[in-house]
Amino acid sequence: MSDIQKESVLKAFQNRSATRAYDPARKISDGDFAYILELARLSPSSVGSEPWKFLIVQNKELRAKLKPVSWGMATQVDDASHLVVVLAKKNARYDSDFFGGVMDRRGLEGEAREKALAVYKKFQEDDIRITESERALFDWACKQTYIALGNMMSGAALIGIDSCPIEGFEYEAVNRILAEEGLLDPAEWGVSVMVTFGYRAKEIRPKSRKPVEEIVQWVE
Ligand SMILES: Cc1cc2nc3c(=O)[nH]c(=O)nc-3n(C[C@H](O)[C@H](O)[C@H](O)COP(=O)(O)O)c2cc1C
Q1: Closest residue by CA, ligand 1 atom 15
Q2: Which residues lie below 8 Å from residue 165, measured CB to CB, with a gap of 6+?
Q3: Domains of the chain
Q4: Any alpha helices (H) in 42-166, and if so which ranges?
């Protein structure tokens, strides 16, 4: 790991820019895209829940259907090399089969499993407050997907691939279209966020960010 230079990572982060115009002639290689997906798969998630799925939408007709209800990617969706729709799991309750799968992957059995589930029950009921709104648990799953989103974009930037995260879309319409296409079961999954990847068509404006003193407070 020591061969990774801080300077090159920082340079990639400075160069990363939400890309609104892609070069239609440049496509990401299968190998590079597999690397980006692997970064998503390896991402951390609360309790190891991995409450995500990644739909890679390369079909032109489907992109065309999504475009009118996705104002945030209208300028990019035709030319982006890859479009990823990130789905988040619904109803990932501590007592669901889905959660059972989480426990299995972590090798938790018997008393250790019961103990862990009791902690997660309390966490979901008292802190996420799943009893107050169905949305709370879905939002918790969505938060996890944003970690994968960030890792995919940062990892892409490190190898010179551009991206743009997309929240600018009509959630109901996009969910409905994907359900109609048989790509998601709306009882189980919902769209969390989307992201385009490709190669920028033009150079970017210099980054604007708050100064570090404004956002960091050390407590010693
Ligand atoms: C969660 C999220 C959603 C975003 N949604 C959109 C979007 O729908 N359309 C868009 O053009 N940019 C979108 N952006 C890009 C931001 O506008 C951009 O990251 C921000 O202005 C900072 O610019 P930079 O990424 O080039 O440094 C989104 C960014 C994030 C993190």
Answers
A1: 18
A2: 18, 149, 153, 193, 194, 195
A3: 12-202 (3.40.109.10)
A4: 60-66, 97-105, 110-122, 134-158
52-56/189-198 β-pairing: unpaired
Tokens of 105: 């992957």
Residue 8, class by beta-carbon neighbours within 10 Å (0-12 exposed, 13-18 middle, 19+ buried)? exposed
In this structure, the number of other CB atoms found within 10 A of the CB of residue 162 comes to 28
Residue from 122, 42, 146, 36 nearest 83 by CA? 36
Which residue has the CA at smallest separation from atom 22 of ligand 1? 18
Q: Is 165 in the pocket of ligand 1 (CB under 6 A)?
A: yes
Task: Give, as one character, the DSSP assignment of residue 183.
Answer: S
Short-list 70, 98, 73, CA closest to 175: 70
Name the DSSP letter for residue 204: P
| pLDDT, mean of each 10-residue run, the chain (220 residues) | 86 96 98 98 96 98 98 96 98 93 93 94 94 92 98 98 98 98 97 98 90 98
* Total-model pTM: 0.96
Return d(Cα 202, Cα 210) in angstroms, integer. Answer: 25
The two tokens of residue 169 are 């879309």
Evaluate: CB of 166 within 6 angstroms of ligand 1: yes
Residue 76 to residue 66: CA distance in whole angstroms: 12
Q: Is 207 in the pocket of ligand 1 (CB under 6 A)?
A: yes
